[in-house]
Amino acid sequence: MRVAADCTEKAHIRNEIDRLDRALVALFAERQTYVRRMAEIKQHPDEAYDQHRIDTMLADIRARAAALGLEPEQAETVWRVLIDWNVAYEQRTISARTGLSLTPPQD
């Protein structure tokens, strides 16, 4: 492992990025085990979407990203994709398990 400042060649940087990518994939895979479990616990597909929880998560992610020197917009973009995928996954999984559909939006 090398810190970025100690990388003197492109190969060094690529090796470290590859190392970090492997770690990120492992973390996302671990995170997905909790999403799967959440889908087992929730009783209705409507429970998969919680705007307050999403807003709270994104605010926290942006703050943490900024504190660590990562552009908050980049972190938010990644998490929005992750959240959208997880919500859709939970909705599909809960619907398949319970036979219930999402409640149509009220006009």
From TrEMBL:
<dbReference type="InterPro" id="IPR036979">
    <property type="entry name" value="CM_dom_sf"/>
</dbReference>
<dbReference type="Pfam" id="PF01817">
    <property type="entry name" value="CM_2"/>
</dbReference>
<keyword id="KW-0413">Isomerase</keyword>
<dbReference type="InterPro" id="IPR051331">
    <property type="entry name" value="Chorismate_mutase-related"/>
</dbReference>
<protein>
    <recommendedName>
        <fullName>chorismate mutase</fullName>
        <ecNumber>5.4.99.5</ecNumber>
    </recommendedName>
</protein>
<feature type="domain" description="Chorismate mutase">
    <location>
        <begin position="4"/>
        <end position="94"/>
    </location>
</feature>
<dbReference type="InterPro" id="IPR036263">
    <property type="entry name" value="Chorismate_II_sf"/>
</dbReference>
<dbReference type="InterPro" id="IPR002701">
    <property type="entry name" value="CM_II_prokaryot"/>
</dbReference>
